[in-house]
Design a protein that fits this description.
heterodimer, B: 446 residues, Rossmann fold, Neuraminidase, five-stranded mixed beta sheet, four-stranded antiparallel beta sheet, 32 strands, 13% helix, globular
Chain lengths: 140, 446
């Protein structure tokens, strides 16, 4: 039984799983590699926020049209630096403000992002994140 | 050497091109999990425990928190965290320790106090906090006679609901309905009223004559309903404050299915004469009756759109009972329902986007919604007998009644009030002292 258990691989992070699937590691960064890495970083963020943290407001009139953009900065160890910001938040009201609140809550709830094991050598690529929360497909 | 330098510079240039120094990663988030928002509500306990005319102020504070918790939970949009899990009691005088609230899974937090003022009134304050953002979202203060604490609780529920959903609440409202009792063939039907959470229940008529179709005025504490007083079916107006009722004119034939216009100045209804029924509208100030439809078919169940420009009703003019929409002067009549089965009791949503209806097909009844042009039909509930949807004033929740008949002809059986969220989730029974049917939701109270 113990031998069996030993055969179970250690849990891989989302980025590691994606890297395994999408391409070889340990190569000099070419433009294509950067693109591939960037894609897997994006996919990792999507998986985490969509799967674990975003609880969009439903049932509001035109709930599917409430699109919100949130920006935030990350430290090298995946923590949010400062506060996440929703575009035009100060001018928002009603259901749109509530949609922005749900997006900000998702970003904060998912933090820190250290479990994504984002590649440190590409920190410049992911230190600033812009998320567009668009519920139109799920709440039309 | 010079060549080497040029080569190195070129290489650096290539690497820079491959790895831009700084870029913003842009990601589209298009999926999520719609689920109740975890919220913590602390007791509204102030510093003192003086006696008021409605019990101790500390007990009032605890009860307010319980009523707000029940309101929010009943909406299905919030899940209240069990107070036994709280790390802090939630001292309203200081800013919350957000880490402790985050640790128990709360994403929103309500704290508050109830304090007895020198003039005998109770001062109730609350604050709504964003736990993850560590900031206050809203806060309000109310002064009230101690016995009004329940209404204050509903007002707080409405304020919290509005800030967290972006829509007006519906907790400071009442339901008027038909309370039923007695055997199937000798049913006693009384007009009854209660708060939307079932409290403050009152019978408005004594059961000596039958009543049906109660509908709230959107602008005043008045109800229109169909009464069989002296065995003649007529539409009446009932003033909840004074308890007085008056008949809405003496017309030839039978009047039924009354409903107010959005400005509360007219009542639209059906009038049957010699076996034919058409739609009429009555101006309340002049009692002038105007005909809107003239057809040999049965036209009934009229309901105005929120700004009074259109009317939806049902009619069997096309061969089977279907839903129609017309201009409020009776012109431009269009059929909007084309699905299988028959459609009845159309009711326009207060926010205008949908019409709720009862549908009957394949031996079952359904409550559903469709857009005013007939597209987007969506069934929300089904059972062997249910009908009569009424909208919450924010257009988010539907209440209706369901019957559990004794036989397959729909005879007898228990009748109950039920409600469901527009999304098709959170169906739950609305508890009434006796059987209940034909509910009508009030607007928000002033």
């Amino acid at each position: 039984m113990a031998a069996l258990l030993n055969k179970i691989p250690e849990k891989l992070s989302i980025t590691e799983r994606l890297a395994e699937r999408f391409g070889p590691k340990e190569q000099k960064a070419t433009s294509l590699d950067v693109q591939r890495q960037t894609m897997s970083i994006k996919a990792a963020f999507r998986l985490k926020i969509e799967g674990e943290c975003w609880n969009p407001p439903s049932g509001a009139l035109d709930a599917g049209k409430l699109i919100v953009v949130v920006n935030f900065n990350l430290s090298q160890d995946g923590r949010i630096i400062g506060q996440p910001r929703a575009d035009d938040y100060a001018r928002m009201s009603g259901p749109l403000k509530v949609a922005a609140d749900s997006a900000l809550r998702a970003v904060r709830m998912c933090a820190p992002y250290s479990d994504l094991k984002l590649p440190k050598d590409m920190y410049d690529q992911w230190k600033e994140i812009k998320l567009t929360f668009d519920p139109s497909d799920m709440l039309s | 050497m010079k060549l080497l330098k040029i080569l190195m510079l070129s290489l650096i240039g290539l690497i820079s091109a491959a790895l831009p120094a700084h870029a913003v990663i842009e990601i589209d988030i298009t999926k999520g999990n719609v689920q109740p928002l975890p919220i913590a509500l602390t007791s509204f306990v102030g510093s003192g425990d003086e006696m008021t005319s409605a019990g101790s102020v500390m007990e009032i504070g605890k009860q307010i928190a319980r009523v707000v918790t029940a309101d929010l939970e009943r909406s299905g949009l919030f899940s209240a965290i069990d107070p036994r899990a709280f790390i802090n009691s939630g001292n309203a005088a200081t800013a919350p320790q957000f880490a402790n609230w985050r640790a128990v899974g709360a994403q929103a937090l309500v704290t508050g106090t109830a304090v007895l003022e020198e003039d005998g009134r109770v001062r109730v304050e609350f604050r709504l906090w964003d736990v993850l953002g560590g900031s206050q979202m809203t806060g309000l203060r109310y002064f009230t006679a101690p016995q009004n604490w329940r209404r204050i609780a509903h007002l707080i529920s409405d304020a919290v609901y509005k800030r967290l959903t972006g829509e007006d609440g519906y907790f400071d409202t009442r339901i008027v309905y038909i309370s039923e009792s007695g055997p199937y063939l000798d049913r006693i039907k009384r007009l009854a009223i209660m708060d939307q959470d079932g409290y403050n229940h009152k019978f408005l008529t004594d059961g000596s004559y039958m009543v049906l179709n109660p509908r709230f005025s959107p602008t005043s504490q008045e109800i229109t309903y169909l009464s069989f007083y002296n065995d003649i079916p007529r539409v009446y107006l009932f003033d909840i404050e004074t308890g007085k009722s008056e008949m809405l004119g003496e017309f030839d034939g039978m009047t039924f299915a009354p409903r107010f216009s959005p400005d509360g100045k007219k009542v639209i209804m059906s009038k049957a004469e010699r076996g034919n029924s058409d739609i009429f509208v009555l101006e309340l100030s002049t009692r002038r009756l105007e005909r809107l439809t003239k057809h040999s078919a049965i036209d009934t169940s009229p309901s105005f759109s929120p700004f009074g420009r259109y009317v939806t009703f049902n009619s069997d003019r096309g061969g089977s009972q279907q839903i129609y929409v017309m201009d409020s002067d009776g012109s431009d009549i269009k059929r909007i329902s084309f699905g299988q089965g028959i459609y009845a009791t159309p009711v326009w949503s207060p926010r205008g986007d949908l019409i709720a209806f009862t549908k009957q097909t394949g031996g079952k009844f359904y409550i559903g919604v469709m857009r005013p042009d007939g597209t987007g039909e969506r069934i929300l509930t089904e059972s062997y007998f249910e009908e009569g949807p009424t909208w919450s004033p924010n257009g988010r929740v539907l209440m209706y009644y369901r019957k559990y008949p004794y036989d397959n002809q729909g005879g007898g059986g228990e009748t109950q009030l039920w409600s469901i969220d527009l999304t098709g989730y959170n169906e739950r029974q609305v508890i009434t002292p006796l059987d209940g049917s034909d509910p009508a939701w009030s607007p928000l109270m002033d």
